[in-house]
Write a structure and sequence with these properties.
Distance between the termini: 50 Å
Number of helices: 11
Largest sheet: 3 strands, antiparallel
Length: 276
Amino acid sequence: NKTEQFIVNLKQAIIKIHLETDTFELFTNEIYDLYRFLYKNVLSDSKLQFRKMENKKKNRTFLSSKYVNKREELEDLIKEFKNVIDSSTYESSFVILNFYIDLINIKPFVEMNDEIALVVLYILLLANGYESYYFVSFMQLLHENKDTFKKIVLTASFNWEEGFAQLLPLHRFFNKLSLKSFEILNEIIRDYNFDKQLNKSNNIENTINKLDEIFTKDEIRIQHPFISDSTINRTLKRMRDDDLIRPLGKGRGAKWIKLYKRENKNKFFEQLNLKI
């Protein structure tokens, strides 16, 4: 199944992209190698080639080729992209999106130009500071907005041949998409920190359950040397507020007493109707 083969190739390519983004350099050969890798065992070798167009130059000589290889056009486009990026005249995302629209319109390859252009766009965004896409799926966000995206790309390509591509709607679309990715990433970080903190607190409570009826913070620290005092204090406060423990005295060396009896270790299994 060629669709399944493409998905396998794409997955391997994205893994490689994530590992090597820092060392990625935009060259014609890089794009061509990526194109061949993505469509290996999907397209025939005859289709895994640069497109050739009829040479329409009026001053074409007898010795000049009848056809123009699109590879040269891609090389010129990449050279221009690098010059503009290096000049820092324009915001990088605007230049990247301009390159993307140019790439899909020059159609350098025999087939699948839109698809390879999208993967190149993804790489360029990662390489130019859009690090949220390491953790939030760029392709999924695009898929969720695919109808809007298609319309905006068509709008951006309108009058492209005359040099008047309409890029502002596309730029606004990607700004919103990128902001959404950062919002999702913030939620992931928040949930991770919450779970991490909750797990630490649960571990401390489990340790307290195993200690004697009267215990000290030092005994907890011995069991959890890498957990901060603030986490231990929050756990003790929570258990105190839940009427599970209370302090005996004040100060750093104060002892604590449990207000409950240590449960039988078999209780958990009994609740699950298991025999031990």
